[in-house]
Amino acid sequence: MKMKQVMALAATLTMAFSITACGSSNKTAEEPAPTDTKTETPAPAADNKDAAATTEGLKPEDGAQLVVWESKDERAFTDEIAKQFTAKYNIPVKIEEVSPTDQVTKLSQDGPSGLAADVVIFPHDNLGRAVEAGLLLANDTFKDETIKNNTEASIQGVTFDGTLYGYPRAAETYALYYNKSILKEAPKSFDDVIAFGKTFTDNAKKKYAIMWETGNMYFNYPFIATTGGYIFGKNGTDKDDIGINSPGALESLKVYQQLKSILPVKSGDINPDIKRSLFNSGDVAMDINGPWELGGYKKALGDNLGIAPIPSIGGKPAISFSGIKAWYVNSFTKYPNAAQLFAEFASTKDAQLLLNEKVGSIPTNKEALESDQIKSDPYVSAFAEQAKNSQPMPSIPEMGNVWSPVNAALPEIWDNNVDPKTAMDKAAQQIKDLNNGATK
């Protein structure tokens, strides 16, 4: 879902959860590539008139059938929620695996031709681009209910230019996973991480103190923002104020460069599958990752799994990216009523608790956040702590111009020892050119 200036986020648990937030998923590179995997939840044989009863005065279209896009990582949840929806409304649902970070682009290509999903999900930083392209229906029928039930920050994340579009379902940020059989407690600073790495890392044996996606801006935002860097000024709304090459950003990037000494691996050789395997086997002691990995890591490590805030940088709490994941209704859908009903149904308190159960996500629903399931969970609580120091990614369309330049600059710094200022000056100029419509 999320991201700039060092704006203080509310310290309450509820607000902390709500601000988190990409994907993942977001998630940016952590999501798998789109696949053609599909399953369909057939409608019950019986014609259940009561099941198709109206909700908030909204009646599904006769013969409605839906296609929903979902990530591979969170597929278990959507398979289950689709079955529940079909049982209630007698509407079959087909699920197709598409990475959330690819969905707006795919929707822009396939939506007008009627080939896209009826309901999609993506991090909130893509919202402005989707709205300006006319790809989404506003969340008007369930607007009051959505606003009442979800945290303020999550509502802000799925609102663009004063209009509510999304149906929030999860807040995401990332934190530090660590193996308690190797480390009794998590390091407090990256200086501590480096000190430990000098005793643990053994490149020949493929053993590393810490691993994260070093070429992915989403996970490396702490090395831009913690000491004063940012993406865009004015809380992410000023496209002309680019802060990735500011003095504050360059100070944090010095720490980023220093970590290469204990992680001598090319950025292109670190991906979610490799990192997951090494962490599960105990060959990586720490991993910077999001809640989408929680279920698998708990299964692999059991009581040896720990989660803590990201280590400090320059004596300051690390600032992570956050994002809101939400359902959206395709403006080109043939079944807008049925699609809205699904988006609402799949984002309720019960749905968000099911999502938490299946993949360890952080709810945005206020009642869900107060449930015993969430409050008694030490892992979710750890993500909440990190969330207090997270910043939401900007949702202006120009955010789409940031990823490629920065994701090219980071490997230059990491792999080729290019001076951070040189690499980030180049990236900032590329972003500026893209923002201003330059063709070269």
UniProtKB/TrEMBL annotation:
Compartments (UniProt record): Cell membrane
Pfam family, one: SBP_bac_8
Stretch list, region Disordered: 25-63
Major subcellular site: membrane
UniProt biased composition (Low complexity): 41-55
Keywords (A to Z) from UniProt: Cell membrane, Lipoprotein, Membrane, Signal, Sugar transport, Transport
One Gene Ontology term from the biological process aspect of the record: maltose transport
Signal peptide bounds: 1-23
A cellular-component GO term for this protein: ATP-binding cassette (ABC) transporter complex, substrate-binding subunit-containing
GO molecular function: carbohydrate transmembrane transporter activity; maltose binding
Superkingdom of this protein's organism: Bacteria
InterPro entries tied to this protein: Maltose/Cyclodextrin-bd (IPR006060), SBP (IPR006059)
Bilayer topology term: Lipid-anchor
Family: Belongs to the bacterial solute-binding protein 1 family.
Protein name listed in UniProt: Maltodextrin-binding protein
Species the sequence originates in: Paenibacillus mangrovi
